């Protein structure tokens, strides 16, 4: 064989073998890595990619058995393994195929997904010059955040029109260095669970500021419900408008270059920007779908501000999103605990009502009321400790069976009209009700004319008696029904009552999509 052909043949073999060696490497998703926490007492997925039909052996640090599997013809593989009781011992997992991967410092405990928009994204520490101002007493919180058995995973913000296989991120031990940029609500929630349960805690933060619930919902779910189709229609309109602006920008650029050749003055052109996170289902595709193989205990959620203009729609959209997640994870009706958004001058009471209604329509859910820790002028209030604590109360009581723990403030149940007065009955008021200050505030009462007047409200055991001299025949009562209420009704466990109304009168026109 002539030398030139021999060199070409050898080069071909080199390229082919290099390509084969690259494809014949077992690869793991970002979540399956050093420092991860695996859900205790559960069947947990381990998965990844390899060359087609590649044989893979897995050795678990807590078991002598070797698990064998084979990648399918597309190179995908997944196995389900039994995880024992929680352990703070750092285990290893060894994966052998054409290459070898050793995962180190793996703990077994409780894993929670933490998602939403900016108030979930809001970090513990401060970032100068941004809305990330740090939580209350952030210097002290950061300094004391040494909990190596709490593990943190932050999903890098990303958007995609199609479902992705993986995310960008890594597991980190909780420390003053790692907690500085981690979700504050997630951290305070996880820290309380760790201190109460005494088991490792894994927190996966996947959130992005300014996002709507539809961005976290799959395309399939949105397309199947006629009430959600206007959302997708508006997305299409927005995309069309963006493309028209982009077309105009490039046309202007062409004309400017032609004009510049003739020494015409140069004009300043601005290329239109597109906010990647504002479109439906793109965050579900990029920041949620890649997580669904990872076995977890439950979800905490802090979102709603961006949907406040369509509160009635949120009543069905939010439960649909939760069902979407549960259907995909295939772990049944796992716990889903969420925050009722705090008062702010830019919000309406309708969105908090939609979240209150969701408490009844979403199975195995819980809602943390935050009317007493908001900020009328800052949509990112800094008291995230209280928010995390109230979410943790739901988890401790409902998920981890602290039977005597009161986990919610008063929730309106029903009313009775007694001549010129109305008696209000509440759930989560077994130990009684109390007020902060001299008199109860934020109660209003109306007759059939639907005109509301400030009401005189008094605590009567586990109920509230409401009346007004201006309303002879009462028909409805509202509590904290405004953008920025200042209610002072609590149960005896110091948990605030949720805003509510007893009527369903239409007195506000919602923003159209």
Automatic annotation (TrEMBL):
Residues 1-24 form the signal peptide. Residues 110-220, 293-381 form the Sialate O-acetylesterase domain. Pfam families: SASA. Transmembrane segments: none annotated. InterPro entries: Ig-like_fold, SASA, SGNH_hydro_sf, SIAE. Keywords: Hydrolase, Signal. This is Sialate O-acetylesterase. It comes from Flavobacterium pectinovorum. The lineage of its organism: Bacteria, Pseudomonadati, Bacteroidota, Flavobacteriia, Flavobacteriales.
